[in-house]
Amino acid sequence: MEEGKSTLKRASSAPSIAQTFSPCREALFITIVCMGQFMTQTNVGVCLSNIDILGASFGVTDSGILSWFIAGYSLTVGTFILIFGRCGDLFGYRRMFLSGFIWLAIWSLVAGFSVYSNHILFILARVLRKAMIFALFGAVAPNSAVLGAVFSAVFSELAWWPWTFWTQAIVAVVCAGLGLLVVPSIHHETSPDTSTWINLFKALDAPGAFCGIGGLVLANIAWNQAPVAGWSTPYVYVLLIIGLLLIAGFFVVEFRFAEHPLIPFHAFSRDVSFVLGCIACGWGAFGTWIWYFWRFQMEYRHTSPLLGSAEFVPAAPIGIIACFVTGLLIARVRPGWIMVMSMTAFTLGNIFTAIAPVDQTYWALTFVCLLVIPWGMDMSFPAATLMLSNSVERKHQGIAASLVTTVVNYSISLSLGFAGTVEVHVNNGGKTPEDVLKGYRGALYFATGLGGFGILLSVVFTIKCYWEEHQSRAVDNAAAEETSLSTIAESQ
What we know:
Layout lengths: L1 H12 L9 H23 L5 H8 L4 H4 L1 H24 L1 H21 L5 H10 L13 H17 L3 H21 L14 H7 L2 H24 L4 H24 L12 H30 L5 H8 L2 H16 L4 H21 L9 H27 L5 H30 L6 H59 L1
Helix pairs in contact: 2-8, 2-9, 5-6, 5-7, 5-11, 5-18, 6-7, 6-9, 8-14, 8-15, 11-12, 11-18, 13-16, 13-17, 13-18, 13-19, 15-17, 16-17, 16-19, 17-18, 18-19
């Protein structure tokens, strides 16, 4: 017994991995982890400022096809994050982290070399380079997206656009090499048994992953292809039907058959649905806004990639300010109210862009919009993560954060399909610049509606929290009064 106690004492007093780092290694470790986040988020911006240059290089002018340069990227983020999170549990986070950098480097090279092929290879590279590395992070970094837009504009206008992606490949390889030196190897002590192929199959929840990923991908492709091919095209609605059936199959597998489900639905309360619904609406509105904002600036105000990137820069410092303010507010204000504010910012950003006159100066609604939108991005993610963390047990908080990231990125991709459908139904065929602009504004009004619904959901959720807290206090007061009466009765 004494030996057992001494063993426990030694274990409890053992230093954490972070405490074993030298100051130099700790600084490098933090830098490499931040670079992982930086690399993933710059990929959001590299196809914004130079989208017309990319399209001209591939001979693509159709807005519906060009939107896939963004949508395909976010689609992979939203669908693969959970399965690769499970891979990290099973095979080690260090191994997955370094593999992610190498994977990113390979497909960045392919994206650059696609200049000698066609836009299909480019979109494929954009999809595959994202699958692993984004699964390792659950935070949003708009500053990196701004920087990505700036550097892609510089390379595209002053050099050659493939160097945008080749440079990313070089940086990713360097980060992988440094990560090999400074990132420690960590495994879960309670990971499922993977000693046989059958056990590995069960531990990965392969049937659930197949149904979930396949369903989300097919449904998203259908919605994003519909504006291009039309809903009357058979393969579009066939893909949607198959996708919905696979999604239904995913829930059946997770609830009935999976020994190690990717998403432990039994551990989540109804609050999770409210939070994820708000995130889906807000970030769906953002995904639509960022695409049509750039299309409006470049097509109707004839902004060059470099000038457009320079005009986009205010989003970076405002994002930093929003992060600090949110950190202060979270300790003083209910997360629900922070979510209300973030949904309001997303909605206002879309309204300002939708109503902005073509000949209006940048310093009017456009500049104001860039001062507002970052608050939606940088307030919603931490608020949602905190709200979900408070709604689940500690052991499920990592999965809850992954769900937030999944919904954020999948909503961006899916909303582009919805917005594109709205655009082609209101632009009268897009035969004149006026009709095309009408379609753009219609898509932005759709995003405004998404943001408004997010505001409604977040307000309802906040009121619900107040009501439940009031009810809980009432029950506690009644119990305390009953106890007090019982005590008085016993004393008499």
